[in-house]
Amino acid sequence: MYPVKLGYTEATKRVNSLIKNGHHAEALLTAMFTVEKTLYRTLRQLVVSAGFPSTQADVLMNKFRGIENIKQVWVCFDPKNETLSKFIAQADLKTVMDAQTMRNDMVHGKAVYKLSECEDKAKAVLVALGNIRQLLEDRYGFDGWSVMKRRVKNTLHADPRVKT
User: Fold this and answer.
1) Are 28 and 104 in contact (CB under 8 A)?
2) Pick from 2, 21, 11: nearest CA to 133
3) Are the C-beta atoms of 102 and 118 separated by less than 8 Å?
4) Rounded distance between C-alpha atoms, residue 144 and residue 6, angstroms
5) What are phi and psi of 14, to 5 degrees?
6) Which of 61, 80, 76, 47 minimizes the C-alpha distance to 154?
7) Banded pLDDT at 1 (limits 50, 70, 90)
């Protein structure tokens, strides 16, 4: 796809360019990739914020690929112990989950969608992504697109509950 270092603006420009040039199915796939990348990178920053060093966060994050896995473990690292569905607008979450189903069906050859349907869904995903990104920035001070803070030293065992 594209490296995150290009930034959010460039990523959304690319999706809009795909839509403008009639590549609606590809726009849907790219928009969903962008949503997943945003959530994945934000979750990774939450893992680091919880005290894991960056190298350990990378090991953990390899187990959390895909929106379903990200949603499942989010509550473990959210500072308020809340799930994504607790603070993301239900309309935005529904848009993303419906687009995920469409994307998976297309990728796995289960269904073919009209290009107009792909276009509408890709545009809706971009709107939802903008809302989600702003919400993540407001909530955590990190939107998945800024430079991630690294942690070299483990701070997990600063206050151990087991014998060390």
Assistant:
1) no
2) 11
3) yes
4) 12
5) -65, -40
6) 47
7) very low
